[in-house]
Amino acid sequence: MINRRRFMTGMGAVGSAALAVPAIAESGTRGTFGTGLRPTFAIVDPHHPASVRLAVAASRKEVHIRRVDGDLTALWRSSLDTFMSAREGCVVACLGKASASCLEEMSRQHWWQVAYRVEHHRHTDGSITHRVSSRGADLQRILEALDQSESWMDSLAEIGVAGANPKNNQWTLVTRTIGQPGRTQDYSEPSVSLLLTA
Amino acid sequence: MRTPPGVSEADYGKALAEFRSIVGSEWVFTSEEDLNLYRDAYSPFLNETEELVASGAVAPSSTEEVQRIVRVANRFRIPLYPISTGKNLGYGGSAPAYSGSVVLDLKRMNRIIEVNEENAYALVEPGVSYFDLYRYIQEKKLKVWIDCPDPGWGSLIGNALDRGGGYTSANYRNHFDSHCGMEVVLPSGELLRTGMGAIPNAETWQQYKSGCGPWVDGIFSQSNYGICTKMGFWLMPEPEAYLRGAVTFQRYEDLHALVETLNHLENSRITSGFPDLSSPLLGYPAVGQLQLFFERGPPPMEAEHLALLKDAKVGYSPALEAYGIRKGLPYWHLMLSFYGPKEVIAAQWAATQRHFSKIRGVGFQVLDEVTFPIDAETAAEHHEPEFGVPSLRVFSIGARSPFNPTPSKGHMWFSPIIPRTGQAIIDANRIFGEAAKDLNMPLFRTFSLPACFWERAFIFILATPVTEDPQTNRTYREGFKKLIKVGGEQGWGEYRTAPVFQKSVMDVYSFNNHALHRFHETLKDAIDPNGILSAGRYDIWPKHLRGNHR
C-alpha cells in the first residue's frame, strides 16, 4: 500500500526549515478569540522557512498555531470550515503556493477576502523576489518589511500576527514586485504569506 | 460600480435596492473587492480585458428569496448567473458566461434536509458541499457513503448539474445520473418539483426518478432554464469490504482485448469500482495515482527506455514492446476495485481473473484489501474519494517540484468523450497528438490514456495550462478551439467545458443543421422570454443577445 500522507516528499530546498519542524507545536489553548482584527489562527507549514518564522511570531503573540504538511484537508474538516463560517476574525498563513491557492479558494466558501498575499520566489543564485498583492492601507508596511533583506521573514511574520487594518476604502489589491527575478528559478515550491479576513 | 450590460444605472440601482430588501444589505455585493471573490482563478483570460466578470452578486438564504429575486430581475431585465458554491474551476469557476451578469450565489442555502440511511438517499440545497454532507454523515454515524469528485470541495448540486463524476461504485459515480428529484425556480419565479415531487406530500420524491409523463430533469443540467434549489441524491450503502486488484498486460495490441473484457465486466457489474488504467512502460500514471506522480515524480527510466519512448509512434514500437517484456514493465496496468461482502468480492475478483486470463501473458496482483468502517486517518492512506471521503490533497499537483518545475497558474480541462474501444484510444492519440503538435499544445505528447468514470464511454481529461502570459494563453485558447473541431470531425465531443469554449463545443453537436441547438433556443424563448437566466451558458443565448454572439 502506498502511504499517501507523505505529501511533501520530493520538494527540495527545505534546508534548515525542515530541521525546525519538531520545534513547531500546535497550540490551541492560549490567545484571544474574536478580537476582530488580530488573527485567530496562524496556519503554518514547516517545510517553508518563512512559515517557521511565522510560527515563532505567532507563538510569541499567543495566536493559535495550526500546522499542515501541504494538505489542508484535515484542518478544513476539523476546524477551519466551521471557524470561517462564522465570518468573523482573520487568519494568517504561510504555505506553499499550491496550498495557499487552495486555502484562498476554500475561504471564498464563506466570503473571506485576501488582505495581503506575498509570493516569495527563491532563485538558485540566492536572491528572492517577492510579489506583493495588498490592500493599499497595508502595502507600505509590507514593502518596508520586505526591504529589510536580512530579516524580512521575521518582519513579515510580525505584520501577519498583528493582523489586518480595519476595513476602509482602500481594499482593492495593489500588486508590486520587490527584487529582480533571478536567472534561474529554484525547483522548490514558492511560499506564500497571506492574511485572510472575514 | 459596474452595471450589467443593457441595464441603466438607475434601473440597476432600483433592482439592487429591491435585492437588499429581500436578502438584507449584507448579502448584496457590488464593490470591487467583493466581486473579486467571483472571478475565475483559472480564467484563460487572466490579465486580459476579455475576462468574464460579474457586476454584482446577491446571496439568498431560501427558495422563497430566490423566487423574489428572479421576479425583480425580470422587471429590470437583470441578467442573473446562479452558482452553487462556484468551485467549477477548470470549467469556468464562479464567473458568469455573460460578462456583467449578477451572480446569484446560493452558498447560504446550505441545509441538509434529509439523509435517509435505510433507503440510502439525501435531499440537499445547492450550498451543501461534499465536506458538509460527509461531516453530517460522520457525526450521525450513518452507514452511507457520498461519491465526491477530486477535489471534493464543491457542491453536490453544482457538480451534478455540470455532470461531474466521482470514484466509488458505478451506480454513484455519474453525479447527475445518481440524482433523484429536483426543485427548480423557473425564470418566471414559479416553483417546480420534478419526478414524484410533483405529487404534494409524496414520500417517494428521492425514491423514484421519473414520476409520470415527460421526465424533464435533464434540461436543467448544463443549461439556463431554471435554478435548482433542492436535489435528491442516491447514496452508497457503506460496503463491508473493498478489494483492489491489478491486471497487467505485456503487449500494445492487448489494449483491444483489455477494453473489450473490461466493458463486459463492467456492463455485467462483475466489477463496479473505478477502473484505473495506466502504462508503466509509457510512463502514464493512473488517475488515482496522479498526485503521487506529481509529488514524487515518475519512476526513474533507463536511458535506453527513454530513447525507445522517443522513437515510438503513437506509443508503440516493436523494440519498446520487447524492452517492456524483457524488463517486466507492463504496457498496460489496470486497477479494478470491488465493494461488497468479502465472499462476494472474492468471487468477483476470481471471475475477473478468469475473463482476463484469455489474454496471453496477463498478470494479476491484489493491491489492497480493506474492511469497513475505517477512520479518516486510515482513509488518507488511500485515494480518499474512492472511499467517499472528500479531500483537498489533489492540490499538490499544482506544486512546484523537481518533477514539475513550472506548474501552471491554473488549467482548462480538455475532456472529449470517445468510444470505449482500444482502437478509439489509439486513434485519439494519433489524431489529437498530430493536431496538438501542429498547434504547439502541451497535450497528447507521448501517449495519453482516458479515464473510466463512465461505464459506456471513455473520457480524456487533460489539463491545458493557464499561464500569467496573455500571449501564451491566447495560443492555448485558439489551439483548444481547434482541438475541439478536430475531435468533432471524428464524432468526438466534449462532455463539459468552460464558457469561453462553449460555443465551439456546441458547434460540434451539429446533426441536422444544429437541430439540437435550435431546440435549446426554442426552449429558452418559451421558458425565459426576458433572457434573465445564465445568458450564453452552453451557447444558449436569449433572443435579444443572439445576433451578438452567434
Which radius of gyration of chain B do the C-alpha atoms yield? 24 Å
Query: On the 0-100 scale, what is the average pLDDT of chain B?
Result: 95
Low-confidence stretches of chain A: 1-23, 28-36
Percentage of residues in DSSP E strands of chain A = 15-25%
The ordered string of helix (H) and strand (E) elements of chain A is HEHEHEHEEHHEE
Chain pair with largest interface: A-B, 41 and 48 residues
Tally of DSSP helical segments of chain A: 6
Strand content of chain B: 15-25%
Q: Tell me the total number of β-strands of chain B.
A: 20
What is the helix content of chain A?
25-40%
Strand order, main sheet of chain A: write it out.
2-1-3-7-4-5-6
Amino- and carboxy-terminal Cα gap of chain B: 29 Å
- Principal-axis shape of chain B equals globular
How many helical stretches of chain B? Answer: 17
Textual characterization of the structure:
The complex is a heterodimer of chains A (198) and B (550). In chain A, a hairpin with a 5-residue loop joins strand 4 (113-122) and strand 5. Chain A is globular, with a radius of gyration of 16 Å. Chain A has helices at 15-19, 49-60, 73-85, 97-108, 136-147, 152-162; strands at 39-44, 64-67, 90-96, 113-122, 128-135, 173-178, 191-197. Chain A has 198 residues and is of the alpha/beta class. The termini of chain A are far apart.
